Every structure is written in C-alpha cells, then in structure tokens.
Amino acid sequence: MTSEQIIQELERYRSELTGIMGRFVDSTRAYRITKEDDPRYRTFIIEIIDFLNDSFSKNQYSSAIDIKFNQGIYNELQTPSYKSIEDIVSIIDSVITRLKRNPDFYIKKEEPTRQDGPTKIELPPPEKVTLKWLWEYVPHSLWALLGGLLLSSFGLGVKFAETNLYKSLTNPASPSVNSAIQNSRSSAVKNK
Q: 11: alpha, beta or left, given left = phi > 0 and alpha = psi -120 to 50?
C-alpha cells in the first residue's frame, strides 16, 4: 500500500470514530456510547490495530491504541469512555501527520548484503604467547569449556578417591585385599 492509501484508510477510521463520539448519550450516571455503536467501535479498534500492524509491522501506534482502548473500557459500566475514543483519534491523527511529513518512514531499508561464509581474519603469530594474548584471542566459550572440564575432572577424582577400587589400589596390604588373597590360596590348597 502507498502512503496515500494508508492515509485515506486512517481518515475513514477517524471519521467513523468521530461520528461515534458525536452520538454519545448523556445519561444520569455517565456520558455513554450508544448500544448500536459499542460493537462497531470494538470492531473498528481491532481493524485499526490490524491495519497498522499490516502496514507498519510491529509499531508503537498499535500498542498505544490498544492501551487507550483497554483503559477506556476499564470502568464500572465496562463501556468505552469518550476520553479513550478521543485519545485514539489523536493517535490516528499523529500517524496521518507522520505519513504526510515522511511518506516512506515505514518502508524498511535494505540491509547491506553479507558474504555467504564467515570471514576469516588472519591472526599474526605473536612473539610470545602470554596469558593476556590468550585471553584476547581465544574465544571465551573455549575458556569456559576448559574451566568446566577442569572442575569436572577434579570432581570425578574426588569421587573416585572414595571408592573401594581406589583404596585397594593405593593400599595393597589392606586387610580386605589380603584376606581375599589368603582365601583364594587356602581354597587352592584344599583342592589339591
């Protein structure tokens, strides 16, 4: 859609909403929307929000209209307030003004084209490999992986030190190992 078509559609919605505002009824409790206009107004709000989202994708105007609509119906009668419709018309007016001043503001600019593959930067070899050089040129994810591996291997070593296998390997003269060896020897002697 061109900006002129968007402006025409928004002006149509603006005139519909101002017509609804002109038909508000003064009752004993409040200034109220007519029963016939209430569903039409709610339909218009949905249409306006969808229209703005379709025209400008995600934008500040749609969310502002939605907020004003919800504030307007949050009253004891649960009907739209005159003030909320007035605020929504003001938001529509600001969109129209912006389109008139800058007709192409909503057109997305093309992003600069990127090369297909990742660019490889040749790193000159350092005279000395220092910790500072490693910290600057080695990806931080690799440092995190290295730290995780060190912590994991330390934890596994601590757990392995608590096992019977480790105890039997480090202390071959322990009673449990000697008794097992003696039992196997005595059973071999008895079998002869």
A: alpha
Going from N- to C-terminal start, the domains of the chain cover 3-101, 131-191
Q: How confident is the model over 45-58, as a mean pLDDT?
A: 92
138-174 pLDDT, tens per residue? 788 888 898 899 999 999 988 988 888 888 888 876 5
Among the listed residues 61, 96, 70, 79, the one whose alpha carbon sits nearest the alpha carbon of residue 24:
79
Specify whether the backbone of 57 is left (phi greater than 0), alpha (psi in -120 to 50) or beta: left
180, 188 contact by CB (below 8 A): no
pTM of this structure: 0.55
Q: Are 17 and 92 in contact (CB under 8 A)?
A: yes
Q: What is the torsion angle, in degrees rounded to the nearest 10, for the CA atoms of residue 175, residue 180, residue 184 and residue 190?
A: 60
